[in-house]
């Protein structure tokens, strides 16, 4: 699995702690839409491009981030150069999930241990990431 780095610090999956409420675009039936703050500039940009989003998650440094769009917006996303999330190639019923561009992808390179523990910070390459307690087997 690819690893990604966003601005979330200690935000649990499913938490709304790091969300911002944006003024919803006109096609939405809502007045406001809450999105992960890490993705809010990108979501606003996509709305300006005419993309109808269905949901998104920045991944909170634990999961793969995604931006879901309606089927009619898939071609816009592809024109903008977005790539599909690998997991999602087969599920098109609710639109498709694309990989956000604003979330940095970390190459895990020779650091295979990182795959076993999604919260492992991969060493010192994450500038600004809070120091995690390293557990040493004694
Ligand atoms: Zn985030």
Describe the structure.
By secondary structure, this protein is of the alpha+beta class. The protein has one domain (3-116). Helices cover 11% and strands 20% of the residues. The protein contains two helices and seven strands; from the N terminus they run βββαββαββ. A three-stranded antiparallel beta sheet has the order 4-5-6, covered by helices on one side. Strands 1-7 form a two-stranded antiparallel ribbon. The protein has a two-stranded antiparallel ribbon with strand order 2-3. It is globular, with a radius of gyration of 16 Å. The two termini are 29 Å apart. The structure holds zinc ion. Residues 6-8, 18, 36, 38, 58, 60 line the site of zinc ion (ZN).
**Uncertain runs:** 112-135
Q: How many strand segments?
A: 7
Count the domains. Answer: 1
Query: Which strand order do you get reading across the main beta sheet?
Result: 4-5-6
Q: Which ligands are bound?
A: zinc ion
**Averaged pLDDT, please?**
79
- Report the portion of residues in β strands: 15-25%
Percent helix among the residues? 10-25%
Total count of helical runs of at least 4 residues: 2
Secondary-structure-derived class:
alpha+beta
What pattern of helices and strands is seen along the backbone?
Answer: EEEHEEHEE
Straight-line N-to-C gap? 29 Å
The major pleated sheet works out as: 3 strands, antiparallel
Shape: globular
C-alpha-based Rg, rounded: 16 Å
